[in-house]
Design goal:
Chains A, B: This is ArsR/SmtB family transcription factor. Chains A, B: It comes from Nocardia rhizosphaerae. 2 copies of one chain form a homodimer. Chain A has 115 residues and is α+β, with helices and mostly antiparallel strands. Chain A has a single domain, classed as Winged helix-like DNA-binding domain superfamily/Winged helix DNA-binding domain (Arc Repressor Mutant, subunit A, Orthogonal Bundle), CATH 1.10.10. Chain A is 43% helix and 16% strand. Chain A has 5 helices and 5 strands, in the order ααββαββααβ. In chain A, strand 3 and strand 4 form a beta hairpin.
């Protein structure tokens, strides 16, 4: 599989980013990634099928919210926090604060160890 | 037509609000309403059919972003800015700033006079 294409910061579309964040599973993924660490897809614990998680991760990536990196057969994902903060100042911060306050996305977590 | 139901601030769902804002027409409506004034639906100039505008206004209302008031045969709409700011601090402000910077929603405007 070739490396997936990611929008440059200047190519990011506000409504794509906002729409990508309008889903509790995707908000949960963003919350898990908010510590800045790259995570293997297998580390993410979500109450959905792998194909559904893959869809959510693609929506986040296509909008520019996350960066996906492939290494061999494994995929890794990071939050593009600096890019988002420079393009849409305050948006991610407000979203994360509201999500934490409202317990949105708390069904997403990390596995005890990477798989 | 009876008055439409609006969620109380405590009933607002973050992802519903965010999803409602993930559309350029709806962002444009929010931008037009951001001056705090109530507007008749007929005052809104949008490049979509009336039925489509009606749909967008319902999505905004159901999420709690706007308040719709009916008077006789006319409908009026306002932005629920205080409710949004108290429930999700900084979210609307960041969204509006990004929308203005990126010219998102600028296809929505006001008619010269109310119809």
């Amino acid at each position: 599989m070739r490396q997936a294409r990611h929008p440059e910061p200047g190519e990011m579309v506000l409504t794509d980013v906002v729409a990508a964040l309008g889903d509790p599973i995707r908000v949960g993924v963003v919350r898990v990634l908010a510590d800045g660490r790259e995570r293997g897809w297998g580390e993410l614990r979500v109450p959905v099928a792998k194909s559904t998680l893959s869809h959510h991760l693609r929506v986040l990536r296509d909008a520019g919210v996350t960066r996906t990196r492939q290494e061999g057969t494994r995929c890794y994902v990071t939050l593009r926090r600096e890019d988002l903060d420079s393009r849409f100042p305050g948006l991610l911060q407000a979203l994360l604060a509201a999500a934490i306050a409202d317990d949105v996305g708390n069904q997403v977590g990390l596995a005890d160890r990477a798989t």
